[in-house]
Amino acid sequence: MNPWVTTCRNRVDARASKPVASITWSYCIDDSDRPQVDVRKFKVNMMHDKHKSEGEGTDRVLHDPISDKLVPLAPLDLAKIHSVDDLVRAMGNTAFTGRQVGEGADVLEVMARDKECFIVMTLAGAMTVAKQGMVITELIDRGIVNAIISTGALMAHGLVEAAGRSHFRYDPKMDDMELYEAGYNRVYDTLEPETNLDFVETIVARILKSWDANEVICSYKLNREIGRYLSENVKERGILKSAFDKNVPVFVPAFSDSEIGLDFALHNRWRRKNSLPTLHWDPFEDLEHYTEVLLLQTRLGIFTIGGGVPRNWAQQFGPFIELRHRRGGEDLPLKRFHYGVRICPEPVNWGGLSGCTYSEAVSWGKFVPPEEGGKFAEVLLDATVGLPLIAGAVLERVGSRQLRTAEAVAK
Fold this sequence. Notes:
The chain has 15 helices and twelve strands.
């Protein structure tokens, strides 16, 4: 049965007793008791009326919103809220950014319940400094997230936390020059002691010293080994530890733009100083491995926090495959992302990738358009507010999800 119903009605000018406009609208019949997201499309076609002067309006034909299948809103009644999911569902029946939060949770839930969907999470911004690392870790442990693309700084600060070190609250009365002299690096309202980063460097150095110089290194390989070290030596939970335990690859496309990237550069200088062969870094091994992982999947979803390099790098999978097919002559399926949820406050009019809409990305061949089944939600909100709400609600709804890895699909 076609779930879409299209209705057409003519608007009549009472004076002329003739149609002056044709109104067409579509709505989706769905057995779910949850309000549908953006399913209504109205189209008004004005017909020529020689009796009307230019600019004159037309008589209105007032419709019944229930007959037109409009979705009613509901007051957010805190007396009925008993869980994160209750709150987010109620927000979805309100307006503005609150409704966006509810819609974001609905689309992420659809992703999580789709057993054929491989979910990529992209991370930008200081989310681990902002103490969101355990939310991301929980998404990995529950099988919601199957691959991660991140900034290097986010992974470095997360490694600090996973290794048992702390970040600290910044007091606005503190002077930034004094903070520098005391070894306290400021990230907006939070402090990262330089001693934390020195400690992280000892972990990275230990791993790099044992690396075979004949083996090319890239971000997902190094992050896997850091995760292995944490799994074997540290009790605390953390992103890279859980990623190793659950076989979730972690890619850092702009690796050199990070503390761990600087650690790698310093390590190679140490190797040269001691007449040892340097390690060779090849970022294209990341691209090739990521692409092969996604080609094995049936459907793809993306859960984006912030934007920047991680978002664009993850989404360029579709254009890369299309170019390999069109320019390279390879026989490849033209895969795109079926689902997308992004939490980012940046507006589209600034022109940056972080604020780019999913509709714009459809034009690049990165996403399946809604007309072909694509489902997307855009939450223009600080991720330290939006991520815990949306992730918490979805985890309450679906519990744990069967792990879906590239290796499992290949078998």
